[in-house]
Amino acid sequence: MVLSTVGALGATLLPAVAAQPRPAAHKGKAEALSGLVSLDDFERAARERMATMAYEFVASGAGDEITIRWNREDYNKLKLRPRVLVDVEVLDTSLELFGQKSDFPILLAPTALQRLTHPEGEVETARGAGVANATFVVSSLSTRRMADIARATTTPLWFQLYGLNKERHGFVRDVVQEVKASGCRALCVTVDAPVLGARNRQARAGFRIPDVFETPYYPERVGAKTAAGLPILGGFTWKDVAWLRSVTNLPILLKGILNPEDAELAIRAGVDGIIVSNHGGRCLDTLPATISALPAVAEKVAGRVPVLVDGGIRRGTDVLKALALGAKAVLIGRPYIYGLAAGGATGVSRVVEILRDEFKMAMALTGRRTLAEIDRSVIG
Ligand SMILES: Cc1cc2nc3c(=O)[nH]c(=O)nc-3n(C[C@H](O)[C@H](O)[C@H](O)COP(=O)(O)O)c2cc1C
Q: What domains lie within the chain, and their CATH numbers?
């Protein structure tokens, strides 16, 4: 039903981006999803259903997509070192982040323009996040308002910010107040995208933000140019981070740190957390894989604030490896969007549940019963 709605709405509003109804859309939701057992299965199913432009927007990266490949390859190169004959009958995957309890260390990363993928957009994702009990980080380029998203779920919501530059301070202050009033519990400031990267695949697919979408938290859209003639996404500096710190008591995380020196500056600026991220390989090609950048950042931070990581996480073993190398939790981007495309809220929750269950299997099969027991000795 969800899928046929995609077709119906698309036919009236979004001729350029609508998913074409496929035979699978006529099957029941559970039936259509039952054969999808891994995150990559969801990508294949989503690709069949998504309009080319929407799929290209989600799947693509910058330049030659070398960083996207490395994000996966570097996980695959790491071998696991198990311990056996440990009683793994009971596992505890729970954690606390900024005073919020979570059942497992997997969050939904901010991804823009979710109405490209589903007519309900971020509201549908929030429903799925609620079923799976996963924290959902809403993008600055959300196509729905926080109040509507919050009404759809009981799960914790965080909000991601771009563009803290001085001329936007008044606007950003209002946004922070609005999202906080809607229940937002933390802010992720994305620092790795002052300008857009060379998104060749998007350009080839003729990608543009459909006019029918509102982006209430980024009304100027993307496209203004810097003095150097580059398309602006979210340019600002450390001074603006200090400004944000002075106007909110919400926890602030900086998303997009790869260099330990920047991690140190972030802590000095008073941030509460760091997300090691290369934006899913969408900004600057040949940046290192995040799993390879993580250890040096975690070492520098030395437990002073939580370090999270995203990029290329597709298996429970990847989650285990990230935690072993110093992450407190991970975020996934593309996989849950593929879940949204393949089965709406049910698809989103299935993706999270599959990854969570694989993570538990990886813990049990390496003899680790709690998150605290996952340390570097898991990596062989
Ligand atoms: C379609 C799409 C849109 C994205 N939009 C945003 C965004 O608006 N803000 C942001 O900070 N990161 C954005 N990201 C990056 C994600 O937050 C995250 O860093 C990345 O997707 C993680 O890699 P993965 O997709 O391999 O899991 C986006 C990623 C994708 C795939």
A: 31-368 (3.20.20.70)
